[in-house]
Amino acid sequence: MHYFISAGEASGDIHAAGVITELRRIDPEARFTFLGGDEMARAAGTPPLIHYRQMAYMGFIDVARHLPEVLGNLSKARRAIAAARPDRLLLVDYPGFNLRLAEYAHSLDIPVDYYIAPKLWAWKEYRLKKLRRVTDRVFSILPFEPEWFGERGLPVDYVGNPSVEEVNRALEHMPPSEEFRRLHHLDGRPILALVPGSRRSEIKANLPVMDTVARLHPEMQPVVAGAPAMTRDFYARFTCFPVIEDSTLRLMAQAQAAMVTSGTASLEAALAGCPQVVCYRAVGWKWAADIFTHILKIPYVSLPNLIYGPIDRQTRARVNSEARLTGVRGCVVPELLVNNCTPAKVNSHLTPLLSDSPEREKQLSGYEVIRRKLLTDTPAARRVAEMVAEK
Fold it and tell me: How many CB atoms lie within 10 A of CB 289?
């Protein structure tokens, strides 16, 4: 079988690499053409057609600024699909780009599978019609998604969450605290993890806020989680705290608490047992908050809160816009978003998490509920590979 796989960012590269490994176990003769990164290259034994570093543009402004590159990548991928005529196209997250590839492959009668269903329950629900039309099977990593998609006429399979296995593996090989500190030249103070995201725009918006809050706690050792392909010089524009590269999960597992930009890292922090405040400043202006409130369809934005609590209509009605943007009452993890992501507000939620407190205990108890909800008998990558290979 020849598989064409598309993953447009660092997290997708990791998840897709797991599927490639499992497909090669099932079919040692399997061939792969892919858009992705170094993890996929190691798993497949071949370099990517396009590296995700040339693709990771998110948001209207970022995409508009790099439109020639985006269109060039799309054209190159389409030509490769037309030339290779793969047996299957497997798309991993990254819906803005991948849905266009799905549409093209569908027009060539190439079966299309989608791993990590687009988060249409949050925004851009209009994409549901296209997703239903151009895909043969959709795989979910969030346990509430099959019901949501099913109610709208699209069968979706929950295959488990790859972060669970990734965190478990990392924790099994976690170095002792003393060794971790020695390796990264850290002092003996409790660690405060600053996790500002993996994209330049996220880091630029969120790291200054995190840096300001961290300076209010001299009793802590602040450490920045460095993202792949980001240079030390870039981080030095926003902070003088130490940066640890490619060890976000281990850093959070060693930390007393963390400030985390909303995304996969917030779920990893929960699975690693690290109390956190979710920060997402983005633009930070009032008009941006108004737009954010208008388009958001859910009461929470962070994965721990979404998995822990329902997102049904009654919940949405109960949570008003102001509460949603300032730290949702009743959620597991406080969320400080857009113009409400200020140092003072972030610090007010972070401070109780730095010591034994009811707020800290509430988060840790909520994390146990989240882990139970995500639990499956088969690793997500193996389940996806088995379902893709059987067709």
Answer: 19
Beta bridge partners of 260: 195, 278
* Distance (Å, whole) CA 101 – CA 5: 10
Q: What is the pLDDT of residue 321?
A: 46
Tokens 């200020």 — which residue?
A: 342
Q: Are strands 276-280 and 50-51 parallel, antiparallel or unpaired?
A: unpaired
Q: For residue 76, how many other CB atoms are within 10 A of its CB? A: 14
Position with higher pLDDT, 358 vs 165: 358
Question: CB under 8 Å to 18, separation ≥6 — which residues?
Answer: 43, 162, 165, 379, 380, 381
User: Of 58-72, 75-89, 126-140, 211-225, where does mean pLDDT reach its minimum?
Assistant: 58-72
Separation in Å, CA 15 to CA 18, 74, 228, 380, 382: 5, 21, 15, 9, 11
Rounded to whole angstroms, the Cα distance separating 71 from 80 reads 14
CA distances (Å), origin 37, targets 72, 196, 353: 18, 21, 36
Q: What is the mean pLDDT of residues 86-101?
A: 94
* Order of strands, sheet of 243-245, starting from the edge strand that comes earlier in the sequence: 243-245, 221-226, 191-195, 257-261, 276-280, 335-337
Residues 6+ apart with CB under 8 A from 142: 117, 158, 161, 303, 306, 307
CA distances from 383 to 40, 164, 262, 317, 379 (A): 18, 14, 27, 36, 6
| DSSP conformational letter for 175 | P
Q: Give the Cα-Cα-Cα angle 5, 155, 143 (nearest 5 degrees).
A: 85
| Kind and range of the H or E run holding 32 | strand 31-36
* Per-residue model confidence (pLDDT) at position 169: 86
CA dihedral 250, 256, 261, 267 (to 10 degrees): 60
Burial of 47 (0-12, 13-18, 19+ CB in 10 A): exposed
Are 184 and 244 a contacting pair, CB within 8 Å? yes
**What is the reported pLDDT for 147?**
93
Contact (Cβ atoms closer than 8 angstroms) between residue 333 and residue 278? yes
